[in-house]
Each structure stands twice: as C-alpha cells, then as structure tokens.
Q: What sequence folds into this?
C-alpha cells in the first residue's frame, strides 16, 4: 500500500479573530490487482497552530488586506512551510466578516497567494456545518443516533447546527456574540450592534454608546442572550422526517465556547478584558448547563484534505464538454426515508436541500452536485419521477445554471442521466454512479480514464479529533 503525507492548511478570518492551522494528512493508495484505484486519509495530525489574532480591520466595513497578508506570511515562516509545500486547505471567512465590503476580493487574493486551496467564503449556513464537524457534534450524533445541537458562538453570530446520524439536518443563525457590545475597562460602552438594539427594546432593556454600564446590567443582558439562544434551540420545529425530539445534547463552540471553562468575571474590568462582553456571555452559557465542545475556538478550521480518490462506475452519463470540473460542493438528498417510494416527500427533501444550497454556495456553474442516498430498488416509473423532481427543483433554485451534476451510490447513472436529459434539454447533464460521498464534501471530476469512466476526487474538511 503506497502512502504519502501531504501538507494542509486551514485559515479562519472571523468577526473577532483570525487563526491559522497546519495539518499533515496521510494519504494511502489502497489499489491492488483486484480493485480499482482508491485513496483515503488514514491519519491526520495538527503540526502547527498559530496564535489567535484580532482580525485586522481598516474600519467597520473593510478588512485590512495588507496587515492580514503580513500576518500570514509571518505565520508561514513560524510554521516552517512554503507555498509550494501546501497541497490542500481551506480559507474560511466567517461571521460578520463574510459580509464586509472587500471579503470577496480577499478570498480571491488568498486563492492566488496562499497555495492550492479549496476556498470558501462561508455564509452562516456553511459556517454552522463546518463548526459542527470541527466541534465533534457530527461525530457524536453518529455514535448515539440522537439529535445533537452545536452552537458556534463567535463575535457577531451564533451559528446553530442540528446533527443526526452523522449529518447536519438543519442550520440556523442568530445575532448573538461577544462583540455585539464593546466597552472599555471602565465600563463605558463604545459600541452596541444594531442587531442587539431591537432585542433589548423588545425585552424592556436599553444600552447606549457612551453609557457607563453596570456589571448587573451587562450580566442581565448576557443571561438573557444565552437563555434565549438555548430556548430557541430546544423549541425548534423541524420536519418530522428528520427530527422528533429536542436535542439530547447542546454543545457550544467558538470563541465564546472556549471561555466557558474560565471563572465567572466579577467586575466590569474583568468582563471587558477583551474589550467586549464575551467572558460574561460564556459564563451564562455555562450556567445553564450546556456542554463545552471538545474543539471550540478552532472548530471551524483545521485544514482541508482529500478524502478519497476513485474511478466512477462504468454506467455513467456525460452530457457535457465541461470536464474537468473542480471544487463542486456536494448536497445530499435521501431518496427514500419512508417504507414506500413517495415522490411528494422526496420533492420536499429536494426542495429544502436545493434552497439551502442556493444560500450557501456561490453562483458558479455547476453550483452544486446533487447526491442521491438511501436508494432502494428503482422501477422505470420511479426513475422518471426522480428525474422530473430533481430537474424541476434544481432549475427553481439555481435559475442561471446550465449544468446539473448528479451522484448515485448504485449503478443507475446512465438511465437516470438519460431521463434527466429528456426532462430539460437546455441542461447539460453529468450523472455518475458508485460514488462514496458525504454531505458538505467537495468533488473534482476529471477526464475519462477507462472507457466512459472518469477519475473522481472527493474532498472533505479535515478536523482534529
């Protein structure tokens, strides 16, 4: 078995902080005389973790690209790596930072100057998924078969992910974070987020810039924020096909989660040690008996690597000349979760998955790959109904897309591809089978290597355990 270590980096530019992590991923080629080639991560090790920096800003709406670049160059030196050594990775712009005026230009700049990355400008939904992977919530849900909630609380947002059976089933975002209120050591308020003002008003509370806040008032606000966040998670009404009870466990990650193990601040000066109310908010999360995640501050970023490389099945359908294609996000849709095939239930799942994907991923074409799981025996009628639903929901959510990629676990790609092509003649169809995928991964599609079969690389974010 051939093995190779590759270097992977993870960079998280968040509302409050920026951090870099370097990992080594051991890739094993498991090819033998009886099987097609296949590669898999069999070991991963974090070899370097940077200091946690305050995200450099020019002003309230722009990130300081120059200072960020200098910071990263220095961290590369500290880690003892050069650009040509980096073979995989993720750049993630999270929280309120993703909404800054120059966020997109920073992603493109880093893509050109920081190695060969899988680059994502993370919206709140994607950030919640990444945090759930890194915090251990997804793994815990796979072990227990229970619903596990992860709340990733940073400076500006709390990204909530509900996990079940090793997958994220729902994501939500609240404007809850340590830097919604900023203050100096004497207790004078220097900033109050507009998102918080309305919340305070609805709860008969006020806090204004320039005001000298008391410890009691700050504590009341933080207690209310923590309690309302947890109450929201416990009261969520989710599709009965994915969830039927409140979470068995609620985990808190992010910068606020990291401070939960510390002692309660007792004075305004202790609260404002970082210039915000993060320590006090962390205490109030701890006091309502939620769990601190195994990985907190770095939950959303420990690098990215190649999960497996394989060759697609022999019954593929390639109705496009776009190959090769890189970095297509995978969106999983269960075909059958009921006792019998129910096209209306499948349509509900397809619509929800496509709508969520349209809010997470960029307007690239193809915007996402539809991955069909839980696939039972498929009759001709069922195949036609599948094709009709998939094409209709895809077009409805991705109006500008011209290429549809569909992944199957079973050997039906050619027949399904032909059915999809008849449904929408304006769509270029790529349908592949025998693909081992996971929701949230990315896929690369290569050129044909053996007849109609093509080389496939499925990449996933790799987090520390």
A:
């Amino acid at each position: 078995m051939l093995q190779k270590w590759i270097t992977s980096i993870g960079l998280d530019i968040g509302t409050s902080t920026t951090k870099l992590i370097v990992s080594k991923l051991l890739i094993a080629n498991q090819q033998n005389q009886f099987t097609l080639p296949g590669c898999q991560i069999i070991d991963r090790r974090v070899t370097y973790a940077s200091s946690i920096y305050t995200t450099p800003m020019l002003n309230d709406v722009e990130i300081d690209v120059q200072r960020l670049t200098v910071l990263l160059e220095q961290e590369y030196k500290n880690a003892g790596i050069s650009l040509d050594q980096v073979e995989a990775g993720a750049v993630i712009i999270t929280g309120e930072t993703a909404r800054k005026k120059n966020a997109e230009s920073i992603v493109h700049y880093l893509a050109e100057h920081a190695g060969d990355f899988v680059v994502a400008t993370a919206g709140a939904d994607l950030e919640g998924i990444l945090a759930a992977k890194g915090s251990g919530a997804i793994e815990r849900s796979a072990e227990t078969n229970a619903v596990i909630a992860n709340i990733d609380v940073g400076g500006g947002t709390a990204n909530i992910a509900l996990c079940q059976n090793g997958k994220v089933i729902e994501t939500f975002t609240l404007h809850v974070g340590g830097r919604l209120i900023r203050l100096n050591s004497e207790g004078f308020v220097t900033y109050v987020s507009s998102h918080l003002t309305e919340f305070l008003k609805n709860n008969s509370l006020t806090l204004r810039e320039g005001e000298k806040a008391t410890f009691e008032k700050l504590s009341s606000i933080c207690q209310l924020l923590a309690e309302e966040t947890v109450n929201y998670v416990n009261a969520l009404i989710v599709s009965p096909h994915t969830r039927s009870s409140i979470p068995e466990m609620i985990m808190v990650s992010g910068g606020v989660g990291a401070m939960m193990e510390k002692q309660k601040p007792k004075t305004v000066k202790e609260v404002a040690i970082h210039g915000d109310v993060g320590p006090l908010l962390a205490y109030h999360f701890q006091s309502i008996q939620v769990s601190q995640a195994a990985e907190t501050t770095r939950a959303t970023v420990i690098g990215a690597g190649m999960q497996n490389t394989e060759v697609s099945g022999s019954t593929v359908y390639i109705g496009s000349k776009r190959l090769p294609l890189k970095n297509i996000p995978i969106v999983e849709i269960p075909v059958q979760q009921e006792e019998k095939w129910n096209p209306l239930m499948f349509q509900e799942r397809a619509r929800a998955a496509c709508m969520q994907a349209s809010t997470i991923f960029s307007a690239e074409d193809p915007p996402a790959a539809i991955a069909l799981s839980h696939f039972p025996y498929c009759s001709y009628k069922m195949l036609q109904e599948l094709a009709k639903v998939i094409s209709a929901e895809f077009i409805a959510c991705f109006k500008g897309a011209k290429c549809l990629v569909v992944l199957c676990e079973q050997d039906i790609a050619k027949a399904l591809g032909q059915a999809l092509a008849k449904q929408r003649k304006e769509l270029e169809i790529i349908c592949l089978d025998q693909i081992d995928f996971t929701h949230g991964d990315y896929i690369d599609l290569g050129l044909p290597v053996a007849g109609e079969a093509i080389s496939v690389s499925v990449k996933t974010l790799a987090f520390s355990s």
Notes: DSSP finds twelve helices and 21 strands in the chain. Residues 343 and 385 are 7 Å apart (CA to CA). Confidence is low (pLDDT under 50) at residues 33-38, 239-243, 302-310, 461-465. The radius of gyration is 23 Å.
